[in-house]
Amino acid sequence: MKTGLFALTALSAALLSTFTVVELAHAQADPVAQVDALEGLFGKHPTARRSGAKGLCASGTFTGTAEGAALSSAAMLAGASVPVTARFSLGGGNAKASDKSRSVRGMALAMTHPGGQQWQMSMISAPVFFVSKPEQFAPFLQVRTPEPGTGKPNADRLKAFNDANPETLRQAAYLAKAPIPASYGTVQYWSTNAFEVTNAGGQSRFVRWQFVPEAGTLGLTEEQMKSLPDDFLGDELRQRVARAPVAFRFQFQLAQSGDPINDPTAAWPEDRQVVNAGRLVIDRVEAGPGGACDKIMFNPLALPTGIKPSADPVLLARPAPYAVSLGRRLGEVKP
Ligand code: HEM
Predict the structure, then answer these.
(1) Average of pLDDT values for 35-61?
(2) Contact 269, 90 (CB under 8 A)
(3) CA of 73 to the centre of ligand 1 (A)
(4) 237-247 burial, b for 16+ CB within 10 Å, e for fewer?
(5) CB 316, CB 21: distance < 8 Å
(6) Using one digit for the tens of pLDDT, what is the confidence trace for 102-161?
C-alpha cells in the first residue's frame, strides 16, 4: 500500500514537473462545466451554439497585403484571394436574445488555402475578453445565473466573485460606453488573444488582430433603438450586402516588450503600431438562419504555418468547449 502511494506520489511529481503553469491552468478548466454554465445562464436552445447562439452564415474572400506577408509567412497573406466562410453572431447563449442587447457581436472566419493550410478564428466586438483565466469562465457565468428560490443571482456570491476577480469587469465597462452596433458590418472586431507571427526570414513577434469596418463604426440612435424590432441584424446585413460588398481592414497590432501577451482582459496601449495586413470582403449572406455554418465550429487554434498561438491560457482552452458545444448541438433536433 505504502509502495503504491509512493509510486503514485512520484508519478504525480514527475507529471507535475513536466507541466508548465499554462498547462496546469488549462487542465483545471473543465470544458463540460464551461458549456453547462452557459446553458445554466442562457437556458437550453437545442441545435444552437452554446455561445454566439443567434447568428447567420455568410461568405466572401480574404486577401493579404505585402505588409502582412512581411510579418507572417501564412499562405493566406501571400496576396492571392482565398474563399472565406463567415459567421456573425450575438454574444451569449440565448438564441432568442434581442439584437439591441448590450452584449458583444461576434465574427468567426474559416479559410482554407488551395495548398491545404487552414486558418480559423472567432473575434468579438470588444478589445478585451471577460476572463483572464479559463477557470474563471464557469464561475463568472454561475454567479450571474438566477437562483431558483429568488429568481435573481445571489448578490453576495456575485460581489465576492467580482471583488476577487476585478479584471473580469473590464469587458462590461467597455460595452457600457460603446454604442449598440447598427450592423454586423459597422462594428470593429478584436481577437483579444495574442498570437506569434513568424515571417519567411524566421523573425517572430507577438500580435493581436482586428477587423475594422471600411464603412466606419456606426451605432444605433435612440430613435432606432425604439423603432427597430428585436431581430434586425440578419436582414440588415442581407440588404447591405445586396447593395454592395461589406469590407473590413485586417490589422495586426504589434506588441512591445512588457505588453501583456497572455491576458485577454488587458488591452495593449492604443498607440501600439498597427499594420494593415489584409482585406476581408463579405459578398454573400445566407437567406435565413443556418446553412454552411451549422455543422462546423471555428477553432481558434486552427492556424496556418507562420502563425502560432501565444501561451494565453484562455486561447489554449478554447477548442475543447467549442467541441463539446458542437457535439451537443449536432445531436439535437430543432424544436
Ligand atoms: C475560456 C474561454 C472561452 C470559452 C469557454 C468559450 C466557449 C465558447 C463556446 C462553447 C462556443 C460555441 C462553439 C460552437 O458551438 O461552435 C463559443 C463560440 C464563440 N466564441 Fe468563445 N469561448 C471562450 C473564449 C472566447 C474568446 C477569447 C473569444 C473572442 C475574443 C470568443 C469568441 C467566440 C465567438 C465569436 C463565438 C461564436 C463563433 C461562431 O459563430 O461559431 N470566445 N465560445
Answers:
(1) 97
(2) no
(3) 26
(4) bbebbeeebbb
(5) no
(6) 999 999 999 999 999 999 999 999 999 999 999 999 999 999 999 999 999 999 999 999
- Mean pLDDT across 309-318: 98
Q: Whose CA is nearest to atom 35 of ligand 1?
A: 106
Ligand 1 centroid distance, CA of 216 (Å): 25
Q: Which residues contact 110 (CB under 8 A, 6 or more apart)?
A: 84, 85, 86, 118, 119, 120, 296, 298, 302
CATH of domain 2-330: 2.40.180.10
The reported pLDDT for the residue numbered 222 is 93
* Average pLDDT of the segment spanning 48-61: 98
CA–chain centroid gap for 45, Å, is 20
Domain boundaries, the chain: 2-330
- 309 CA distance to ligand 1 middle (Å): 16
Nearest atom in ligand 1 to the alpha carbon of residue 49 is 15
Pocket of ligand 1 (CB under 6 A): 34-35, 49-52, 55, 87, 89, 106, 108, 122-124, 129, 134, 137, 192-193, 264, 297-298, 314, 317-318, 321-322, 325-326, 329
Separation of 43 CA from ligand 1 center, angstroms? 17
Residue 290 binned pLDDT confidence (cut-offs 50, 70, 90): confident
Q: Please write the tens of the pLDDT for every residue from 264-277.
A: 999 999 999 999 99
